[in-house]
Amino acid sequence: MPDTFTLKEICTLITKGTTPTTVGGHFAEHGINFIKSESLAYDGSIDTGKFAFVDLATHQMLKRSQIAEHDILYSIAGVHLGKCGLATAAMLPANTNQAVAILRVDPQKASPAYISYFLRNPKFVQSVLNSVAQSAQPNVNLGDIGRFRVPRLPLSAQIEIADILGSLDDKIELNRRTNETLEAMAQAIFRDWFVDFGPTRRKIDGASDPLAIMGGVVTHPFRAQELADLFPDRLGDNGLPEGWTLGHLEDVLELAYGKALNKKDRRQGSYPVYGSGGIGGWHDTALVQGPSIIVGRKGTVGSLYWEDRDFYPIDTVFFVKSQWPMAYCFYLLQTLGLHNMNTDAAVPGLNRNNAYRCETPIVGPEIIGAFQSIAGHLRQKIAANNEQVRTLANTRDLLLPKLMSGEIRLRDAEKLAEDAA
């Protein structure tokens, strides 16, 4: 067995957060970041969009759970058990609650990034999940965490391993940010064309330059003129661009039911299994051919996921069938506020018939096709970036245990990381 040390040996602090109400504090709409376990992920990323907030007075009361730069945040309970991330200066000041452990590594004894990567190792994560699989309330306590054993390597090697793996994570993060920009572009075009009726309104306001009419969406003047010509120059009595009619979501797409698939019945495979919270596992058989859209039906009501690959939607979601372009359907669904349509107080649920009654313009195929041409190109770029992210993540997860065990040399690992990027 390789030489190891425990987290207790190399941490100056192993504690957990505090719920504000237990000290007389409260949450706020804005203020000091409060990082819950929902913000953590198995890949080590921390979703800042899911942060809650507390006011300064509450933050000062929560002294035990104040987070420092390079602290490791480790989810210790529930469905998020085993997810972790490394706190950065940009997130601070910040606090967390009792479902998240704070591990403060002594930088003279170990690299916090190295320890974070070890905790993210899929094999280690699975070993933790297996150890509590039979528990009614899956959790690990602070004593358990202190006994976690990590391969003992020289500090210089730990830092170099973290740098190699970090270079892959940096590329993954760059691709994610690029995809966020591409998504925002597609969303903005859809809203301008089909919600705000921008091209028609700009014609009404007297715009004559086709690039101005199209809001600068395209740069080639001939293409801009083609697109501008597709849009009416006035609004009809129904408030829509002349010639457009008002229909309902059921005129555009079908929300088909997913199919139950218990975890014990899943066979390890390459097809993602979707629930209302996103990918919840894998199976060796797909139910739906991609690309398609998954819509949360039970649990996380109205959640939306695009999937290019074939996949298996379970019975807590709908998936979309349509003769209309799938990209149009995706961005249309984003404008309907489905997440606000919960119809069941006990178990959150989205009623399909209620969704079908949502009003939407019915537009000619030429304009829909033009949108598909632009949005489809953006989605192709997003798909390519996602594929590279998967390659980078697989390389990182392959290298991680091999580097820590000494099975692969640092120089060889650097080459593999460069090739993957």
UniProtKB/TrEMBL annotation:
Question: What keywords were assigned to this record?
Answer: DNA-binding, Endonuclease, Hydrolase, Nuclease, Restriction system
Locate the Type I restriction modification DNA specificity domain: which residues?
4-183, 241-318
Gene3D superfamilies, per database record: DNA methylase specificity domains (3.90.220.20)
Q: Name one GO molecular function term.
A: hydrolase activity
Q: Which Pfam families match?
A: Methylase_S
Q: List, alphabetically, the InterPro entries matched.
A: Restrct_endonuc_typeI_TRD, Restrct_endonuc_typeI_TRD_sf, Type-I_RS_S_subunit
E.C. numbers? 3.1.21.-
The EC category is hydrolase
* Protein family according to the UniProt entry: Belongs to the type-I restriction system S methylase family.
Query: Which PANTHER family does the record match to this protein?
Result: TYPE I RESTRICTION ENZYME HINDI SPECIFICITY SUBUNIT, TYPE-1 RESTRICTION ENZYME ECOKI SPECIFICITY PROTEIN
Protein name, per record = Restriction endonuclease subunit S
State the species of origin. Pelagibacterium flavum
